[in-house]
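Async update (no meeting this week)

Hi team, since we skipped the sync, here's where things stand on the single-chain job. The sequence we agreed to prioritize is pasted below, unchanged from the tracker. I ran it this morning and attached the output directly underneath so nobody has to dig for it. Comments welcome in thread, and please keep replies under the output.
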Amino acid sequence: MNLSFLGIGNSGQNQTEQIKTPVSEETAPKQLPASSANLKSGQVISGEVFAMDGRDIQLLLDNHQVLTARLEQQLPMSVGQLLSFEVKAFQQGQISLRPLYANLAQNPALLSALEAAGLPVNETTAEMVHSLMKEGMPIDRSSLHGVYKLIMENPQAGAKAIVQMLSADLPVTKESIAQFENYMNQNHQIQNQVDSLAGEFPKLLLDLMNEEGIGKAMEVNREILDIFSENAQEEVLSFKEEGESLIKPEENGQKAERLLLEENPFNKGERKEGIEGKQADVPLTKAEGEKLAGQLRNLGLSKEAASQIQNLELSIKEILNIVKELSEKGHENIPEKAWKALLQGKEYQTLLRMGVEKEWLLNPKEIAQKGKIEEFYEKLNEQTSKVSRLLESLGKTEGHLMKGTETLRQNVNFLNQVNQMYAYVQLPLKMSTQNAHGDLYVYANKKNLASKEGNVSALLHLEMDHLGTMDIHVALKSGTKVNTHFYLEKEEIIDFVEKNIYKLNERLEKRGYSMETQVSTKEKEGGFLTNLLNKEKSSTIVQQYSFDVRA
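Output:
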């Protein structure tokens, strides 16, 4: 997948052992309930480590009471050690603590590195050195000063995030830091961003109509349709110059309809015949289709084309292209109230929103087509840039649409940067009944890369409304043997997957593969980028051509 178009860690020792010391009933420390601890966020507390299990810790306080809490990050420590923590939050009755740099400062290697570099010892520098050591990166004077300079230039990011980006060979900029944090916090999903933005285009037209009149709204509506149908423009102009028209007189209707629906490349692959009552992909009721057809008839649409719209026989793209054609005619005899009725109607607003979603989301069938993912991201990058320029020309630089579009464009650019190092890509999917999010990356054991019998593996992460979160690990052995393991969030989905897995087996067999499948439940883990970076410490990414994504 080549999209070239565009802090405190575990010491490695087992920390799960509980230390039990015999005590009498008189001297035994008492458990301090979280509800009665009377602690506030930001408060600093100190105590002796009484017991620990991973990130769960019990602190013996000065009042001989034990406070049970959970660390935000693991810390190398031992029972009996005196440590200081900052109270971060109370979540579901549990206290969350953040280790202070004073604990890290007890590390002689850390102190020596900072002293040799001539840097101050504080929470930021301690976390910086510790993160560098955890990532196996150099902590010489030159390296520390270089990283420290980046941290000081980007105070909005923590030292740990900066070090992780450097370790992953990602550029450290204001925009990339924001996207990196989005990925680490699982706020990165293009599908969610598109869902939020698509409805902003109809709102923009309504705002312009109220602020500058219907004429400006019509102009911007045409520009929006141009952005999302640019590939069709040349063909549209070619038959327009020949004198063909979608408008009355009625005798031209049939010919114009044929040219629009059959020859226009904007509509290829989108046409759905209205045979035996089969409807197109228009999300309208029969009554809404009839109302929309009437509105377009008032704008000059032929009777034949309006009949197909009324019967819901045309696709979303086909109808939007009709609106685009009608708006380019510039008929002086058509009253502005006819255009106002269309742009204000929920029918057209629904179609425009869905049209944007179809452009900015992937059809699952496209994923297996060579080059389609790259083509999709090229289009997404180009269209978001044009939308930003349009909004700038309108002076709409502070609204949700502008900010969201810029965030989406930066997400695509960051994804391109990640893809230079890792064969990872997001799959924002437009399903038949829902939108869904997917992540895909391909990896392999580097020892097997040179061997013909080496394994190539992939992870497909899906988030579905009804099936929940799914992690599908796939291993391709000897070119034809496929082992899959479905990790499901919901235990009740196991029976459903096992009952229907034969369909996948049959499809793979037709492609020359044999498959073995396991299904189990799995608790949610950290962010997808976190898991990817962790796996990269022991794996080497391979290119897409080494793995058949259709499998």
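Quick observations from my side:
The chain has a mean pLDDT of 77.
The longest helix spans residues 372-394.
Reply here if anything looks off.
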